[in-house]
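User: Hi! I'm working on a homework problem where we have to compare a predicted structure to a textbook description. Could you give me the structure for the chain below?
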Amino acid sequence: MRYYLDEDISPKVAEILRQEGVDAESAHEVGMLQASDLEQLEYAVSKKRCMVTRNRNDFIRLTVLFFNENRPHHGVLIIPYSYPGDRFAQIAKALKKYVLNHKDGMSPYGIDFL
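Assistant: Happy to help. Predicted structure tokens:
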């Protein structure tokens, strides 16, 4: 599974994940700051990455839109606010564990919570 982290997640999380051997990139690193949620998801799709975000409602709505329009989609993984945003290592550890437990990645149009 390849992750694309929305701008609401620190790029430090992507750095930690890469150090742990997980393929991850951040909106901060690829110049996607202040892009719309639609643009963020389109970018993730273009790179065949699972979208990782804290923005539950908008990305659930966009996933339904992509499904209805039969557009490609590689899943959305939502990080709940029970994970404090400044706990980079904790978030990275949970994301790494998710990868290890989902060797085949997420199903197209899948939505899951960390």
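For your comparison, note the following. The chain has one domain: 3-113. Helices lie at 11-19, 37-46, 56-68, 88-101. Good luck with the assignment!
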